[in-house]
Design goal:
Blueprint lengths: L1 H27 L10 H26 L3 H23 L5
Helix pairs in contact: 1-2, 1-3, 2-3
């Protein structure tokens, strides 16, 4: 069961990473909606991408060391955090 949840978290994390890479053109691009490479935004984006890619790896490492709950928490943190931020910003109901 834990492995299935870690695999699902890995898929969710990879989807979130793909979304971050996909919208990077709108954030750093040269279009009318781009920020033209704001260094603070670039640093935050890069940090979020690294965290999103490292979370499933750290989750599987924690599972290997016998800390399954900690591994699940680490692996699911980026998708849940993204959901909380999205719901907070947009005001969408959770139901």
């Amino acid at each position: 069961m834990v492995i299935a949840l870690l695999v699902a978290a890995t898929i969710a994390d990879l989807g979130l990473a793909a979304l971050l890479i996909g919208v990077s053109g709108f954030i750093f691009g040269h279009g009318p909606e781009g920020m033209h490479g704001n260094p603070a935004a670039a640093a935050i984006w890069f940090m979020l991408l690294i965290i999103t890619l490292a979370a499933p790896v750290l989750g599987f490492l924690q599972r290997r060391q016998g800390r399954e709950q900690a591994g699940l928490l680490i692996a699911w943190l980026p998708p849940v955090g993204a959901m909380v931020i999205t719901v907070t910003i947009t005001g969408l109901p959770l139901v």
